[in-house]
Amino acid sequence: MKRIRQLCIAGWKMIDPVYFHFTRLQYIKKKCGKETIIRVRLTRYQGKNIVLTDGTEIRKNDILVKVHLQNAKLLSEIMHYKNELRKAKIVYSRVKDSLPAVVDYVQVSKHKDEIKGLIGITTLYKGCKRLGFEPHSIISPAYKKFKQTALLPIYFLSTNNQLNQGLPEPMYLFMSKDTLFQKYSSASIVGNENKTLESNLIN
Known about the structure:
It is a single chain. The protein has 203 residues and is of the alpha+beta class. It has one domain. Helices cover 50% and strands 21% of the residues. It has 7 helices and 8 strands, in the order αβββββααβαβαβαα. It has helices at 2-23, 71-78, 84-108, 128-131, 141-158, 177-184, 186-202; strands at residues 26-29, 35-44, 50-51, 57-58, 63-69, 115-122, 134-137, 171-176. It has a 6-stranded mixed sheet with strand order 1-2-5-6-8-7, sandwiched between helices. Strands 3-4 form a two-stranded antiparallel ribbon. It is globular, with a radius of gyration of 18 Å.
């Protein structure tokens, strides 16, 4: 099984540059120049109106940053681990480490003032709330089925769990621009680190 996964991921890495070209994605890099696990592009939202917990309303045709993970790269990092919790922690850490670079992307975008937030679609959304994302169901049955089928290879390659309860349901993940900036701008990160340091000194 491990050998099959290795071959699948190797094939995926070969196809990925073609996928990248046709989807108009952009690589997101840190200020140091190191590439993150996230690729993005701007998109106009086409779903139902959604109000996020901070009051941000996402409406049809609003501009969002569509977030794609470099799945082939990420899968090659976690495939050697059998423990599902360990895999989840690696994914969580890699995404969290990448989000400050998304802040930089939004700040230099000519559409900065129009961008409402981030959007992604995934079946692997455990822990997303800790990152600042909010899961929302996909209403369209046809689109949900399409994304469920499209994301199935990622699910099979990323987990050792068996599909004994049916196929996993894909979900929209949203994060408002305000939440993104509050949690992941440079000033916010420094502020949080200082609070942690102060807490440690007091304790």
